[in-house]
Every structure is written in C-alpha cells, then in structure tokens.
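To illustrate the input format used throughout this study, we show a single complete record. The first block contains the structure-token representation of the backbone; no residue identities are included at this stage. The design step must infer an amino acid for every position from geometry alone.
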C-alpha cells in the first residue's frame, strides 16, 4: 500500500521546496490511482504510459518523484532510469546581426539610452532578463556575476569593459 502522508513527511524532512513537494506528491497520487502496489511490472507500465502521454521533461520529473518514493521506502532496486532528452544543437528565435544593429540604432536615435544599454548588455553577455536584474555595481567593477542554478552549478556571466 502507498502511504502518501509518510512520503510527504519524508520530502519535508529532506528540505525540498513546496513546489517540488507538490509535484512529487502529484506523481505518487497519479501512480497510485492506476496501481495498488509497487512492482517492477507496474513501474514499467507506468513509465510507458508517461512516455506516451507527456513530454520527456515531464516524464523525467515524474520518474524522479517515484524514484524518491522508492528510496524513502527502501526499494532502491526498483528505481527507474530516466528517458533521454535530445537537446537541440542550436538556439531558436535568435535575431540576425542586421536586426540587432537596427534595433540598437533605433533605440539610440529615439534617445532610449537605458534600453539601448540593456540590449547591448544582453547581446554582449548572453545573459537573460532574470539574470540581468541581479546585477549590481560591484559586479560591473569586478567584471563578472556568479549565479547558481537549481542544481548548484555555477554560471559566470562576464561583463565586458565596453
């Protein structure tokens, strides 16, 4: 039998965020609505159903939730492997150099110097808006900004002198 309350206590005990806890609980609830017990066969069927029903990122999130549950009940041997996500080797929706130059020129001509420098900064650093808003004067002085992603990986954004 699947004990959702015990699982939620486990998740809170390992200090996961509220959103992660909700997501993991949802995945376990979804599994338990289809299957009464945890077996290798049921897990395999559930994974196939996920693959047929969702995008790979969602499938992996649900698998991660179920694997975490399996760890919490001491059934690590039943853990499922994640599906492979094929990454595109290029960026979509990137403006051309000509459009970028036109955009900068138009902003400068219209006296929109704040936005002119925002666009120049984003293009020069590869930063995104959510990273841009974290920049302080000290980062400009030292020439970089260090950001940590969800997985604890460091992303350093170098700020050119110009």
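Output of the design step:
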């Amino acid at each position: 039998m699947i004990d959702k309350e015990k699982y939620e206590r486990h998740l809170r005990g390992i200090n996961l965020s509220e959103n992660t806890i909700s997501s993991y609980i949802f995945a376990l609830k979804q599994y338990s609505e289809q299957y009464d017990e945890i077996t290798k066969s049921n897990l395999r069927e559930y994974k196939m159903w996920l693959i047929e029903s969702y995008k790979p990122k969602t499938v992996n999130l649900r698998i991660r939730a179920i694997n975490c549950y399996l760890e919490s009940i001491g059934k690590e041997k039943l853990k499922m492997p994640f599906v492979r996500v094929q990454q595109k080797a290029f960026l979509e929706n990137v403006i051309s150099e000509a459009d970028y130059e036109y955009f900068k020129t138009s902003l400068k001509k219209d006296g929109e110097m704040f936005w002119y420098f925002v666009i120049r900064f984003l293009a020069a650093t590869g930063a995104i808006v959510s990273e841009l808003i974290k920049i302080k004067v000290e980062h400009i002085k030292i020439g970089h900004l260090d950001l940590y992603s969800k997985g604890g990986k460091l992303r350093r954004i170098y700020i050119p002198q110009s």
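Structural context for interpreting the output: The chain is about 60% helix and 5% strand. Helices lie at 4-13, 18-34, 40-53, 56-72, 97-109, 113-125, 129-132, 137-142.
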